[in-house]
Structure formats: structure tokens, C-alpha cells
Design brief:
The protein has about 300 residues and is α/β, with parallel strands linked by helices. The chain has one domain (about 5-170, about 195-220, about 265-285): 3-Layer(aba) Sandwich (Rossmann fold). Helix content is about 35%, strand content about 20%. It has helices spanning about 20-30, 45, 85-95, 135-150, 175-180, 195-210, 225-235, 245-250, 255-260, 270-275, 285-295; strands at about 10-15, 35-40, 50-55, 70-75, 105-110, 120-125, 155-160, 165, 180-185, 190, 195, 215, 225, 245, 265-270. The chain is globular.
């Protein structure tokens, strides 16, 4: 007897099967026959009904089986951790293009870091990218590659720009326990958040409703500075609130990665997400997410 997945006509290729995408798999397997590019076989993916294809975006010769495979692609693999541009995305697109049949849709999970520092201003998707960090610039390069590729062919490319992702098992509680400082109120930055489950749902609906060559801010409705976010977490989990420090003081106490997050301030607009993707957030604010985490722990 054939299983349900064998009767599904549409084929979805997943490139980058991390935490968020795995959260989307239960919904995706009801709609698509799923293939995933993996470096090593994962028994848990097999149990979830995913057909795995061995390959590596850093080794172009291993990507030949992707040609003409899927009707749609969900791409969440990050660029390399150093260098310029995103050769991984470039190699993926080369593999997808080498056959006569192109995917009809491609969804890419990017980051709101592409906007750079916006000095606390409201940020719609029409704001030009201005990434200041090398990490953000590599994402800008990936988006540019995908947009150009979508414009040249018949593939509808949609970009989901995600801010800070959190969930019950993805809360920065250890940072609070360490006593890492946050900025004094006068120097604090605005941060943005999305629950991992809501980002997973965004992937599902974008495959159906995402516009061609369209970017979406996938962010909740919270509007608060970074210090307020950590204070709320500390209060909810009965931890001491983080100490406050000036920007000059935190430079001697925090890693370059954490400092980079403190160097950018923006307030994302998410009206396009709601209007076009019709995404209904299960966790519309971080307060809702924290409350759910307290219930689940």
C-alpha cells in the first residue's frame, strides 16, 4: 500500500532543514511531497516523511540531483560565516537552473539585518538594504542573487526577513543568568521578535501566497527596546534583571556578536505580512510567547 506522501503531486525541496523548517514540516507534509538536501542522513527526518538527498552547498558536484526535482524550494541555508557574497546560494541556483524545468516558487528565509541601523525608525519592506555588518552584507548579496534569478526566469521568489527568533527552547535565559549588561535607557536600541512557530507558519503560507520578487517582514507586534525584552524575561523566570551600562562600558564586557546587535535599532512594520500572506500570529507579542513558555516548562 502506498503511503500518503507518494500520492502528493507537488514536490518541495528544502535546503537548510533547521529548527524553524522542522517546525513547519507537519503542515508541509500534508501539502507536499518533501525532499531535503542534507549533508548526512537524519533518521528523524525520515520518520517525518522526508526523502533525503545527500549533498553539500559547498560542493557543487553533489547538487546534480536537484535539477528539475521540485515544483517549489524552501531555502533557509545561511551564507558562509566569512568572505563576501553568498556562494552557497549561487551554487544552489546554478543547480536549479541547469535543467529544462525550473521550480515555480522559491521561498528564502533572510534576516532583517539587511536593513542595518535605522536609528529606531519604522522600517517597511521598501526601505533599501543598508547592512553594515559583514554578516548582513552576505544576506543582502543572497537576496540580490535570488531577486535577479527570479526576474530572469519563471520562478516566483519571495523573501521572508526574520528578526530575533525565540521559542520556549530558544530563550536567552543563560545570558541573563550570567549577568550580561544591557544598555542604559538613553542609549538602548529597539529590537524585533518572532516566535519560531510563527516563522514556520510564515514559510507554509508563503509557499501558497507569497508575491513574486516580494520581501516580507515576518515580525510580531511588539514594540520595545532590548532592555525591556530582557527585563520581561527576567521577571517572568524569577531572575535578576540585567544590569544597565553605557555603550562604552558594554564594549569591554560583551562579545563582538552581541555588540553588533546593540549597534542596530529599528521598528519593523508587518502590515504586508498580514495583508498579503494573511498570516495570523499565534504569538502576536513577546508577552504571549513568554506566557506560553512558562506554561510549557
Amino acid at each position: 500500500m502506498k503511503n500518503a506522501s507518494s500520492r502528493l503531486p507537488r514536490r518541495l525541496l528544502i535546503v537548510g532543514c533547521g529548527d524553524v523548517v522542522r517546525r513547519a514540516l507537519p503542515a508541509l507534509t500534508r501539502r507536499w511531497r518533501i525532499y531535503a538536501l542534507v549533508r548526512a542522513f537524519d533518521p528523524s527526518l525520515r520518520l517525518m516523511g522526508v526523502t533525503q538527498i545527500r549533498g553539500d552547498l559547498d560542493q557543487p558536484a553533489t547538487l546534480r540531483r536537484l535539477t528539475g526535482l521540485a515544483h517549489a524550494v524552501l531555502h533557509s541555508a545561511p551564507p558562509p560565516g566569512n568572505g563576501q557574497g553568498d556562494p552557497r546560494t549561487q551554487r544552489l541556483l546554478a543547480a536549479l537552473t541547469s535543467g529544462a524545468s525550473l521550480p515555480r516558487r522559491l521561498i528564502y528565509i533572510s534576516t532583517t539585518g539587511v536593513y542595518g541601523d535605522c536609528a529606531g525608525a519604522a522600517v517597511p519592506e521598501t526601505r533599501p538594504p543598508a547592512a553594515a555588518t559583514a554578516r548582513g552584507q552576505r544576506r543582502v548579496a543572497a537576496e540580490r542573487l535570488l531577486r535577479q534569478w527570479g526576474c530572469r526566469g519563471a520562478t516566483r521568489v519571495s523573501i521572508l526577513r526574520a528578526p530575533g527568533i525565540y521559542a520556549t527552547d530558544r530563550l536567552p535565559l543563560e545570558r541573563i543568568r550570567r549577568g550580561d549588561p544591557v544598555l542604559v535607557a538613553a542609549e538602548d536600541v529597539y529590537t524585533n521578535h518572532i516566535h519560531a512557530e510563527d516563522l514556520a507558519n510564515a514559510c507554509v503560507v508563503a509557499l501558497e501566497r507569497g508575491g513574486a520578487n516580494r520581501a516580507y517582514n515576518i515580525s510580531d507586534d511588539s514594540d520595545l527596546p532590548m532592555g525591556a525584552w530582557f527585563d520581561r524575561l527576567a521577571d517572568a523566570f524569577d531572575l535578576p534583571r540585567p544590569p544597565r551600562a553605557t555603550r562604552a562600558e558594554v564594549k569591554t564586557r560583551l562579545s563582538p556578536m552581541l555588540l553588533s546587535f546593540m549597534g542596530e535599532s529599528r521598528r519593523l512594520e508587518n502590515a504586508r505580512m498580514k495583508r498579503e500572506l494573511k498570516l495570523r500570529l499565534h504569538y502576536p507579542t513577546v508577552d504571549a510567547g513568554i506566557a506560553a513558555a512558562l506554561h510549557q516548562i
